[in-house]
Design goal:
The complex is a heterodimer. Chain A is an alpha/beta fold. Chain A is built from 10 helices and 12 strands. In chain A, the strands form 3 sheets. Chain A has a 6-stranded mixed beta sheet, with helices on both faces. Chain A has a 4-stranded antiparallel beta sheet with strand order 2-1-4-5, with helices on one face. A two-stranded antiparallel sheet of chain A has the order 11-12. In chain A, helix 3 runs parallel beside helix 6 and helix 4 (about 105-120) crosses helix 6 (about 135-150). The longest helix of chain A has 18 residues, at about 165-185. The two termini of chain A are about 35 Å apart. Chain B has a domain at about 5-220. Chain B contains 12 helices and 2 strands, in the order H-H-H-H-E-E-H-H-H-H-H-H-H-H. In chain B, strands 1-2 form a two-stranded antiparallel sheet. The longest helix of chain B is centred in the middle third of the chain and has 30 residues, at about 90-120. Chain B is globular and about 60 Å long.
Chain lengths: ~260, ~325
C-alpha cells in the first residue's frame, strides 16, 4: 500500500535518512524499530511532508506523495498520530474529535464521534473536558481516536507508548492490534517498546543511523540476538530446552 | 464623565483593536505586523473620504473601513507573508517585510492625501474628526458608541473562535499547526482569514482612534509604539489579552496625563507616551507573561478563601 524508494530526507540541510527502502503491505502492521536518533520519526515526517525530502519516492497506492501538502494527505486517507503534541490541549475532547474529522460532513463527524466514544469509553466520560487535563493514557486513546476519525486507509503511529506506565502502554498496543484485526487498517508504527511491538507486528524494519539494518518478519527480528542486544536493548539467553528467552535491558522500556 | 474619560474611552477602544490585531497575527503567523500603523491610517482616510465627499456620520462608513482594511491584509498576505512563510522565513524577516509594506502604504496614503487636496480642495493632512460627531447625554457620542462597537466586535470574534467550525480550526492551527495539517485543516486558509480579520481590526482601530486625536497621514506611525505596548502588555499569546492590554494602555495614557498635569503642570503633556510605557514595563516586571498571564482565578479563589477564614475567626 505504501512504498518508500531510495528516500533521502532530513531537516533543512541536515540529512537524516539515507537511501531508505520500505514497503508497507495492505491491512498489515509494519513496525519500525531502532535506537534513538535512527530516523524513525523523520521517516513518518517525510511521508507527511513535514521533513524535507531531498530525493527518492514515496508512493501511496501507486500515487506519488512527495511534495503533496500535509492537509491533502489527510484527504487521501492517511492518518498521522505524532509522538508529542498529538492532541489539541486547549480544545475539549469533543472539539478534538471534530477537528480530526474536519473534512467530513457534519452528520459523518457526529456519527464518527459517537463511534469513537463507543470504542474508547473513557473519552465519553471526559467529552467536554479540555484535552490538556487528561492523563497520558487518556490522551493517547484520544490521539488514536482522532486518527481513526478520518476513516483512514493508512495510519502512521509515532511511539504511542512513550512516557506511559507499562500497563497503559500494553492497553495501547492491544488497541493498535485491534485496529488492524477488526477494522482492517494498514498501520505503520514507529515504536520504542520494541519487544512488544515486534510481537504484535507483521513486518519489521530496524533502522540504525538513517539506514535499514533489518527487514523481514517482525517476530523473526526477535530471533536475531546480535541486532536485538546491540540496537534494541533486548538481551537474549538460551533456555533449558535451547529455545530463546527474551529479556529487556534496563535501557529498554520493560524490565525483566 | 471625567474630562479625560470620554477621550480616553474613544482612544482606548481604537488602541484595543489595533493591539488585538497585532496579537492575532503574531499567534497565527509569527509575524509582528508593523503595517498595522498604515492600516490604521487607512481606516481614518476611508471615514474622512466618506464624511467629506458623501456626508453623514463617521460611524456609517465603518463597514467600508473593515472591507478596505481586510483587503490591505490580503494583499500583504499574498504579496509578502505567504511566500515567506512557505520558505520558513525567520520571525525577523517576517517582521521586516511588514515594515517594508508599511512604507509602501505610507507612500500611497501621502499620494492619496495630495489627491484629495488637489482634486477636492480638502485639507486631509490635519483633520479633527470629532467635528463630524454629535452629542449624546452632553458628551461626544463616540464615547458611548465606540466602546460598544469594540465590545460587540470582541463578542463576535469570541463567538467565531469558539462556536464555528472554522474558528475552532483556527485555534487548533494556532496551538499545533502540524497536527492541524495532519487533521486536514488547510493552514493557508487559516493564515488568510487571520490577515483579513487583523487588517479589518487595525483599520477599524485607526478609524476609532482618530475620533480622539488629530488625523494625519503619519498618525499610525506616531501611535504604533502604543499599539505594540498594548499587545505586549496583553502577553502576546492571547488575543483577548492583547485587546485588554490596548484598552489599559489607552486609558492610562489619558488618565495619567490628566492626573499628573493637574499635580505638576502642563509640561507633563510632553511625556504622555511615557506613562503607559512605564505601566507596561512595571506590569511585565511583576507579571512577565503580561495581563493574560495573571492567575485571576487563583487570586479570586484566594480572596474568597481569605474572606471565609476571616468570617470563621
Amino acid at each position: 500500500m505504501l512504498t518508500v524508494k531510495n528516500l533521502n530526507s532530513g531537516y533543512g540541510k541536515l540529512q537524516v535518512l539515507y537511501d531508505l527502502n520500505i514497503d508497507v503491505p495492505e491491512k498489515g502492521l509494519t513496525v519500525i524499530v531502532g535506537p534513538n536518533g535512527a530516523g524513525k520519526t523523520t521517516l513518518l515526517c517525510s511521508i507527511m511532508n513535514i521533513a524535507n525530502v531531498f530525493s527518492g519516492e514515496i508512493l501511496f497506492a501507486g500515487e506519488p506523495l512527495t511534495g503533496v501538502i500535509t492537509h491533502k494527505l489527510a484527504q487521501k486517507g492517511i492518518s498521522y498520530v505524532p509522538q508529542m503534541g498529538n492532541v489539541f490541549a486547549e480544545l475539549t475532547v469533543l472539539d478534538n474529535l471534530h477537528m480530526a474529522g474536519y473534512m467530513l460532513s457534519k452528520s459523518e463527524v457526529n456519527d464518527k464521534s459517537e463511534q469513537m466514544t463507543e470504542i474508547f469509553p473513557v473519552l465519553k466520560k471526559f467529552i467536554h473536558r479540555l484535552a490538556g487535563t487528561l492523563s497520558g493514557g487518556e490522551r493517547r486513546m484520544l490521539a488514536i481516536a482522532m486518527g481513526l476519525m478520518k476513516n483512514p486507509k493508512l495510519m502512521l503511529l509515532d511511539e504511542l507508548s512513550t512516557d506511559l506506565a507499562p500497563i497503559i502502554a500494553e492497553r495501547v498496543m492491544v488497541e493498535v492490534a485491534r485496529m488492524r484485526d477488526e477494522l482492517g487498517i494498514t498501520i505503520l508504527m514507529v515504536e520504542q517498546m520494541a519487544k512488544r511491538a515486534l510481537e504484535i507486528g507483521d513486518t519489521a524494519y530496524l533502522l540504525v543511523s538513517g539506514e535499514v539494518r533489518y527487514s523481514g518478519k517482525a517476530d523473526s527480528l526477535l530471533h536475531e540476538p546480535k541486532l536485538c542486544s546491540m540496537y534494541l536493548g533486548i538481551k537474549q539467553a538460551s533456555g533449558k530446552d535451547g529455545a530463546f528467552e527474551l529479556s529487556v535491558s534496563d535501557e529498554g522500556s520493560e524490565n525483566s | 464623565m471625567a474630562p479625560w474619560m470620554s477621550s480616553g474611552l474613544i482612544y482606548a477602544s481604537g488602541l484595543a483593536l489595533t493591539a488585538g490585531s497585532i496579537t492575532l497575527l503574531y499567534i497565527v503567523t509569527r509575524t509582528f505586523n508593523f503595517a498595522v500603523a498604515s492600516m490604521a491610517t487607512i481606516g481614518f482616510y476611508v471615514v474622512y473620504t466618506g464624511v467629506t465627499l458623501f456626508g453623514g456620520l463617521p460611524y456609517q462608513y465603518y463597514p467600508f473601513v473593515l472591507i478596505i482594511g481586510a483587503i490591505t491584509g490580503v494583499i500583504c498576505y499574498y504579496g509578502l507573508n505567504r511566500p515567506l512563510l512557505y520558505r520558513k522565513a525567520a520571525e525577523t524577516t517576517l517582521m521586516m517585510s511588514t515594515l517594508g509594506y508599511d512604507l509602501i502604504l505610507l507612500s500611497l496614503i501621502q499620494m492619496y492625501a495630495d489627491f484629495l487636496t488637489y482634486n477636492f480642495k480638502l485639507f486631509p493632512r490635519r483633520v479633527t474628526m470629532s467635528l463630524f460627531d454629535f452629542e449624546l447625554f452632553g458628551e461626544r457620542a463616540a464615547a458611548f458608541i465606540l466602546p460598544v462597537i469594540a465590545i460587540g466586535f470582541l463578542m463576535i470574534l469570541h463567538f467565531f473562535l469558539t462556536k464555528t467550525k472554522f474558528g475552532i480550526a483556527m485555534r487548533a492551527t494556532i496551538e499545533n499547526p502540524t497536527l492541524a495539517g495532519a487533521s486536514g485543516i488547510n493552514s493557508d486558509r487559516v493564515y488568510l482569514v487571520s490577515w483579513i480579520i487583523s487588517g479589518g481590526m487595525a483599520s477599524l482601530g485607526g478609524a476609532f482612534m482618530v475620533m480622539a486625536m488629530t488625523g494625519t497621514p503619519v498618525m499610525g506611525m506616531y501611535t504604533i509604539p502604543l499599539m505594540f505596548a498594548g499587545a505586549i502588555l496583553g502577553g502576546l499569546g492571547n488575543i483577548y489579552g492583547g485587546i485588554l492590554g490596548g484598552m489599559v494602555i489607552g486609558l492610562t495614557e489619558y488618565a495619567g496625563v490628566y492626573l499628573l498635569a493637574q499635580q505638576f503642570g502642563p509640561w507633563v503633556l510632553g511625556y504622555r507616551m511615557g506613562i503607559p510605557l512605564f505601566i507596561m514595563a512595571a506590569t511585565l516586571l511583576v507579571f512577565p507573561r503580561g495581563l493574560s498571564g495573571i492567575p485571576l482565578g487563583k487570586i479570586i479563589k484566594n480572596l474568597f478563601a481569605g474572606q471565609k477564614r476571616g468570617a470563621s475567626v
